[in-house]
Design goal:
The structure is a homodimer. Chain A is mainly alpha-helical. The first copy, chain A, has helices at about 10-35, 40-45, 60-85, 95-115, 115-125, 135-155, 165-185, 200-215. Chain B binds a DNA duplex through loops.
Chain lengths: ~240, ~240
Amino acid sequence: MTTETVPLDRRQRRRLETIEEVLDHAVEIMAEEGVAGLSLGEIARRMGIRPPSLYVYFPSKHALYDALFARGWRELLAAMRAHDDVAQSEQAGGAELNDLMLRYARVFVRWAVEHPAYAQLLFWRPVPGFRPSDEAYAPAVELYDFGLARLARLQELGLVRPDVEAVHVQRDWTVLLSGVVSQQLANGPDESFDTGRFTTALPDLVAMFADRYGQPTRTRASRKPTPSRRGHADQR
Amino acid sequence: MTTETVPLDRRQRRRLETIEEVLDHAVEIMAEEGVAGLSLGEIARRMGIRPPSLYVYFPSKHALYDALFARGWRELLAAMRAHDDVAQSEQAGGAELNDLMLRYARVFVRWAVEHPAYAQLLFWRPVPGFRPSDEAYAPAVELYDFGLARLARLQELGLVRPDVEAVHVQRDWTVLLSGVVSQQLANGPDESFDTGRFTTALPDLVAMFADRYGQPTRTRASRKPTPSRRGHADQR
DNA sequence: GTCTATATGACGATAGAC
DNA sequence: GTCTATCGTCATATAGAC
């Protein structure tokens, strides 16, 4: 929107590069020590400078968190936009709600568990006094609107039942995604997306969602939630 | 289990009381400043003592977090046991799965949002180097087993479909609950349980759950997810 | 046993020299 | 822009009075 189109001089380019370097190190440290474990001293140490020098680029530690918050949402937003499916409308006729939502959920949850530092910062409130600024919050709102518009589009296409409001469906949907991410990061932070105890529950959870909010006529009768794979002997 | 039955002398009684007082102040401070914002100095200040005196009762700050972690799970476990419904089996014949699970969910989520400090400590990982000890984790396991046994009982009673494993259902159930708690605490920490943007979604979410895992024959045909209450003018 | 007094090192942050 | 020097606060730890 208000992005500067005037060419940046060397001074400003170098400055932005340094800022990005600071943020890169910050994300790395947060991934290792936890979001609240981030320290300016450690950033400076890894960059080969002294802590006070960081104040040239960020007026406070909270400002740094703010930049990280904004960058995290922007990256996640970019990942979801890159996925893009419904907007292209190619799937309109053939695909079913369950498949569309599962693909969307997989992209979202995969990004979250593979970026645990960002995920904690974006979805929880781990930093004592920190509240994101309105500017930093903007891409979060943008992603919310993106998901909402997607659901509304699916409703227009007849894949989501028409007798519920999209915001209503969106609310339940975000609960599902945030539940998977929270449970996985809190209880199995070292498990991969493909083998996680909770990420692997996505097909069932999305099916649960699609059974409720999909169009009854179009939703297939797949009521069985992947019953007892690798059945035990004591299970009859 | 291993609770000491030998009567405690005054010395030990006083010591335990002091420990409880420390924990009370700690919970209060965490609620105000966030879990990672807890400081021994602030606890000592509010108790009218000096910080080093706290080391008489807790060998480190992590030990204090450990005690808080254990106490939080014990309190939540007690709240869920006090609720108690299926164990008493009075509801066996009359009640439906949706109602039983909704009541259970309401007790759980209400406790979590009304004890945000505990909730953050128990469900997230906000403290950089802290990992709960096995002893502190025990009541968490106990609550998990409690919920699992409850689901198994509901399965025996014919309220939960028999073709899925209880652990499977339990996993999806915890995702639902943790999703509501996470979303509510992260996005509306100051909203009450009764008016929260996400806590009020519980009926729909539990219905979604019950539709999938309840016995088809017994689950009523309540497929409509409370459509558009307080309809707007622009909504036709 | 419990307390006060005190020391250490890390942290975020600011002022000012260069 | 980067540095040194410095401040106040924090967790941690030890010494010693009572």
